Structure to design on (339 residues):
């Protein structure tokens, strides 16, 4: 996305992990600086969590500030990093009102979805929660997801929102699918917990350069690629957890303010379609969206020469589990799937 020279200069100054204003504020320069960040396991706190929260839609800024503040107030969260991926937003729109304490703002140099996984020098924890700006698990759900991640093999992902892949034999390609009962192979970046080292693997591995270019070209599928990276690293599928409750403003089954807080695409994307009224999956990318994500899986497989995605079965449920996916209906919060 082109921007003026003046904007380039401002953005470089705002990127805390870019050293020296000589680097151009483009993905390669930003990525190069981020990949200079080295995480040494002994320096990272195992007992706390960093939340990496992505934002793009200016209309959702009030919601983003509220969600960032809620994460920052959680006793296990050491820091919240808001990654703003809309280069055209004026500084004053972002900086005032101020974000809550323990929340830092990083402006991405471009709208690339790959920016979501750039390593940050300010990350001081072994675990990082990557989250969208319209989803908020309650305190119990955050704690449970973090505890579950601590028990996993290195490289594994833990999340609340599962998806799957399957082979479309008739067309000789992979399809992106809703999870079959008890079987899934991916978790979405609406909220997932991963190891900080996976940020480096995703962003800095030369082998993934062509796959990252697919993410840029399609403006989609960064979450699918991260699931590839994690499965390759851990040798197993992700872990689905269910605990507490998860407020999802982006679910199309909300009946209040749907047009304001609707996700810009069904999942993972930060496009500019926030104005559209969310009335169901079809209005959030629909069949074309699922088709495109199937194409991403097929393309990632072709580029890597292997299929690392693994199926997982079942989920880890907190003993006193609440219901997932709360939506506003008639002024009350109820389960989104309740008709």
């Amino acid at each position: 996305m082109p921007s003026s020279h003046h904007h380039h200069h401002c953005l470089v100054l705002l990127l805390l992990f870019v050293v020296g204003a000589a680097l151009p504020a483009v993905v390669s320069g930003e990525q190069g600086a981020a990949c200079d960040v080295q995480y040494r396991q002994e320096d990272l706190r195992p007992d706390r969590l960093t939340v990496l929260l992505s934002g793009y839609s200016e209309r959702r800024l009030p919601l983003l500030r509220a969600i960032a503040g809620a994460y920052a107030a959680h006793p296990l969260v050491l820091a919240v990093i808001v990654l703003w991926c809309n280069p055209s937003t004026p500084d004053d729109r972002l900086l005032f009102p101020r974000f809550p304490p323990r929340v830092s703002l990083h402006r991405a140099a471009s709208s690339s979805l790959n920016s979501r996984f750039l390593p940050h020098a300010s990350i001081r924890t072994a675990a990082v929660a990557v989250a969208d700006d319209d989803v908020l698990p309650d305190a119990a759900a955050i704690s449970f997801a973090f505890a579950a991640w601590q028990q996993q093999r290195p490289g594994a992902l833990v999340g609340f929102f599962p998806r799957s892949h399957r082979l479309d034999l008739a067309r000789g390609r992979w399809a992106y699918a809703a999870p079959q009962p008890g079987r899934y192979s991916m978790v979405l970046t609406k909220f997932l917990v991963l190891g900080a080292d996976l940020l480096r693997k995703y962003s800095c591995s030369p082998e993934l350069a062509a796959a990252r270019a697919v993410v840029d070209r399609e403006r989609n599928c960064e979450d699918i690629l991260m699931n590839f990276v994690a499965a390759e690293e851990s040798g197993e599928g992700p872990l689905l957890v269910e605990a507490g409750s998860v407020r999802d403003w982006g679910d199309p089954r909300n009946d209040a303010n749907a047009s304001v807080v609707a996700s810009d695409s069904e999942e993972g994307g930060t496009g500019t379609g926030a104005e559209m009224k969310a009335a169901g999956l079809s209005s959030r990318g629909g069949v074309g969206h699922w088709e495109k994500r199937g194409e991403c899986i097929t393309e990632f497989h072709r580029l890597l020469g292997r299929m690392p995605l693994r199926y997982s079965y079942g989920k880890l449920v907190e003993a006193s589990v609440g219901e997932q996916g709360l939506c506003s209906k008639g002024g009350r919060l109820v389960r989104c799937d309740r008709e």
About this structure: Residues 5-335 form a domain with the Spore Coat Polysaccharide Biosynthesis Protein SpsA; Chain A fold (CATH 3.90.550.10). The CA atoms of residues 2 and 119 lie 24 Å apart.
